[in-house]
Amino acid sequence: MLGSALGAYAGQTDLLVLALPRGGVPVGYEVARSLGAPLDIFVVRKLGVPGNGELAMGAVAPGGVCILREEIIAELGIPADRLAAMAAQAEEARRESEAVYRHNLPAQAIAGTTVVLVDDGVATGATMRAALAALRRLQARSIVIAAPVVSASTRRELEALAGQMVCLAVPEIFFTVGQWYVNFEQVSDETVAALLEQLSTTV
User: Fold this and answer.
1) Are 197 and 104 in contact (CB under 8 A)?
2) pTM (2 decimals)?
3) Which CATH number covers residue 31?
4) Do 168 and 177 touch, CB atoms closer than 8 A?
5) How many other C-beta atoms lie within 10 A of the C-beta of residue 104?
6) Under 8 Å between Cβ of 115 and 108
7) Whether residue 144 is found in the same domain as residue 113
8) How many domains does the chain fold into?
9) Which of these, 178, 133, 173, 151, lies nearest to 23 by C-alpha position?
10) Concatenated DSSP letters of 86-144
């Protein structure tokens, strides 16, 4: 369904679909197949609040990008040295995950491309904001955010940053991404690697 909604981009020679692992990869795989575009991963690591890893206080992305939600950090009084240590740990984990997912596949060139940035859903938007900042640093020509479901408040924020956004559902009342899926089992590292490798040989 998301691939169909993005149909206006099909056939563009400079098009690249980038999926946020892990959950975004099965969605990105179908989008890339629908658009006839190459698929790659863009590994962004969320910085979870101490004691509540699901609540994002920021994220790290390729190119040394670190986006922080200063209001949450200030409210919780997280010390700067602890925050720096957590960001460094997240970046190390991000690099390790990318190596596992790629299985030695080379990264697609991003400079000058139209990037369709895909995730399985967007709640707070911390990872998307980090991804957008990193993609601009890597000189993507334009960026389209694409997700099946996005919270209404987050969509307004991201549209102001990205300019182009395609989503299927934009609920005002939003609890979790998983509530919008019949099957929301965790995607394995092996599935991510297999989908990436499969599409790299068919596009």
Assistant:
1) no
2) 0.86
3) 3.40.50.2020
4) no
5) 6
6) no
7) yes
8) 2
9) 178
10) HHHHHHHHHHHHHHHHHTTPPPPP-TT-EEEEE-S-BSS-HHHHHHHHHHHHTT-SEEE
